[in-house]
Amino acid sequence: MPLFVDQMNRNVEMPDRPKRIISLVPSQTELLFDLGLADRVVGITKFCIHPAHQVKRVSKVGGTKQLNMEAIHSLKPDLIIANKEENEQCQVEALMQHYPVWTSDINDLHTALEMIERVGQITDTAEKAVQMVNNIRSGFDALDGLHTNLSCVYFIWKNPYMAAGSGTFINDLLQRCGFKNLVTEGRYPQLTDDALKDLNPDAVLLSSEPYPFAEKHMIEFKTTLPNAQIKLVDGELFSWYGSRLLHSPGYFNTLIENLSPNNEADTQN
User: Fold this and answer.
1) Are 237 and 247 in contact (CB under 8 A)?
2) Sign, CA torsion 224/229/231/237
3) Helix residue spans in 35-86 (DSSP H)
4) CB-CB neighbours of 89 under 10 Å
5) Disulfide engineering: 112 pairs with which of 17, 119, 206, 241, CB 3.0-4.6 Å?
């Protein structure tokens, strides 16, 4: 029986090539479709929105944190793909009692590319996965010459304000763009206005997800930090760790051009 190892260092036995796959993570759902597995994906979460024209037809199994276990059982999957951070451990462990569950653990670009290759192996699309990884790696290699010389804070949530800190996938991508992330606490710490003023970043990046920051929020931050550049950024291109990474380097190049140290502080996205 073929044996695969997930990113939790768990052995996942697959009796055969998976034909009924459930994905519990939006970025990994998109990856499966881009690997050509549309006819084998039978269940996804309500937050799996890409590719938009294809996911509409797929059965939904609840949210990433609140899975509908009855719906999952009804779909009779022969492989479930989950993630350590985005899914609840107790629910994933319950599913492991019934199905092969392959779980990712992503904290930087390296582990994201590893995930893509391993998902390719377990779904019998290894050649496509390796080509995808090579293309993503080439795009990020071209970012090596970028030096923004800008300090930043990257916000993911409001009420309370939460920012991406060390040990996160977002932090790794910020560093690859040349940013200095001033939030050095681990994971996603809360930040008060006073703490933000003390950090005094050159740029404040407001993510489009999971909280949908908008122009009105840019104005609020401008009041707190009148000399900082405030930008709305595409959260998917900073935090989705599947095939969407193919598009991230080009977006980062444009963002950095608009955040030149020579630019005056502004509130344009």
Assistant:
1) yes
2) negative
3) 52-55, 69-75
4) 10
5) 241
